[in-house]
């Protein structure tokens, strides 16, 4: 059963070494992410599953101890998913590497950790099924859900300005803050893809996992400093 969830964005810029001189610009976002992770620890889960957008290799699973790095972003920073290891044959995709960095920053030791990267085109029904599968069983499960909102909030955004981006992010923020699983499940996958909203599939995995749990939500952060929607929420 799902007992708690944290939702965080996954820009590599969350890692100060990657952001370099601009690191201070995301101090508030980092603080909100760490607060969300603290909610997971407080729930005393038996397991933590990190869910995020997959890399070019597509859907993948990663055991505790799996490693990742930010060498592709020009810095020699390595991370590990939970303790133990190194383990696993594949390197963590960027979204899970950012999650591993967050967990390391908090000194996570509350429960074993595993990772699931989901491909961004994954259709909503299958996302919901994956979430139900993750939450099935007696184990107290927590989710750390990584994913950005739209990337079209400004002229300098990665996807340029799209007038549909702000209302899309606003609805996602409302749903995440209210733990509204039906609204998350109803997010339009095609629109999300057009807006480059990489968080859509992970959010819908969360919606499936949280069905019928009665968890309450709180929106901890909502901004788009580089034209990309960054949302942080905690469910408990």
Describe the model:
- It contains eight helices and nine strands.
- The protein has 236 residues and is α/β, with parallel strands linked by helices.
- The strands form two sheets. A seven-stranded mixed sheet has the order 3-6-2-7-1-9-8, with helices on both faces. A two-stranded antiparallel ribbon has the order 4-5.
- The model has no long low-confidence stretch (mean pLDDT 96).
**How much is the radius of gyration in Å?**
16 Å
Reading the helices and strands in chain order gives EHHEEEEHEHEHHHHEE
Overall geometry: globular
Strand order of the largest sheet: 3-6-2-7-1-9-8
| Content of β-strand | 15-25%
Query: What is the count of β-strands?
Result: 9
Number of helices: 8
Percent range for helical residues? Answer: 25-40%
Mean pLDDT: 96
Termini separation:
12 Å
Largest sheet composition? 7 strands, mixed
Helix vs. strand class: alpha/beta
Low-confidence residue ranges: none
